[in-house]
Amino acid sequence: MINGVNLTFQFLDSFAFIVLAAIGLAVIFGMMGVINLAHGEFIMIGAYGTTLAANAGLPLVAAILVGVLVTAGIGLLLERTIVKRLYDRPLDSMVATWALGLAITQAVRIVFGNSLSGIGMPFGAIQYGEFSYSTYRVLLSAIALAVLLGAYVVFTRTEFGVRARATIQDADTARAMGVDTDRMYSATFAVGSGLAGLTGALYAPAMSVVPGMGSSFLVEAFVAVVTGGGSVLIGTTLAGGVLGAVSALFTNLYGTFIGQVALLLVAILLLRFLPAGLSGVVEDFRERRERDSS
């Protein structure tokens, strides 16, 4: 039997998890074409940076900022030294970032051990009847929407966003118009890495912070980016809504494992019948309206 309130909370939780897991990957893969298999490790770095900063006495908000900045800095360093040589080489980028992910995980395990002391979940729980749900995890859905809105503003309403999109769409023309394309690639990769770090930072109070924690985000991230289609922000939002609803419904009815299976099956069906992704449906609808109006 479906509990409506519980289903709503689970949908908000699933939506936040999928969107936050995918947004950094969507920027790096969707905009730059780099298949970053170290995405989960970037999320882990954000969680570690936040947890270590919080355990050192910083407030949670400041600790989250530390996690984001540390991850963005490491992402920038890796882009400048390794990833920049792999643009337009998707298979090579997959192998290289996979190896980077393994190296990062082992380095974290060697330096910090197999786990860190947790920082605790803030804000308590929402009570409804005999059930309760974490207030913090529900608030993450609002944060996910804010992150999407912020990414939209940055990439569509700022000079940096215009230059970044111009560089990624046609680097030669952008360079001829005076854009420092190397800097734009680096900045875009750093932004995507920072968004991955933000995901880890936000989930640090809600999960066990261990070296392999990033792998729990990786499947949802890639599924959301692929099913979302070519439009990074619209696709990520739609994928989060559709996949989050499927995951919440089947998890509520049959448990977490069946919820994961249902999510993957729906993703397969979407890829089969909507090869351009969910954002492709929006683009087709928009083009049809423009033709009709003209």
Automatic annotation (TrEMBL):
Q: How is it placed in the membrane, per its record?
A: Multi-pass membrane protein
Q: Name one GO cellular component term.
A: plasma membrane
Does Transmembrane helix show up as a keyword for this record?
A: yes
Q: Which domain of life is it from?
A: Archaea
Where does this one sit in the cell?
A: Cell membrane
Q: Say where the protein is mainly found.
A: membrane
UniProt entry tagged with the keyword Transmembrane: yes
Task: Kindly list the residue ranges recorded as spanning the membrane.
Answer: 15-35, 56-78, 98-126, 138-155, 184-205, 217-250
Q: Care to name a GO molecular-function term for this sequence?
A: transmembrane transporter activity
Family annotation (Pfam families): BPD_transp_2
Could you tell me the keywords of this UniProt record? Amino-acid transport, Cell membrane, Membrane, Transmembrane, Transmembrane helix, Transport
GO biological-process terms attached to the record: amino acid transport
Which PANTHER family does the UniProt record give? ABC TRANSPORTER PERMEASE PROTEIN, BRANCHED-CHAIN AMINO ACID TRANSPORT SYSTEM PERMEASE PROTEIN LIVH
Similarity comment: Belongs to the binding-protein-dependent transport system permease family. LivHM subfamily.
What's the name of the protein? Branched-chain amino acid transport system permease protein
* Taxonomic source organism: Halobellus limi
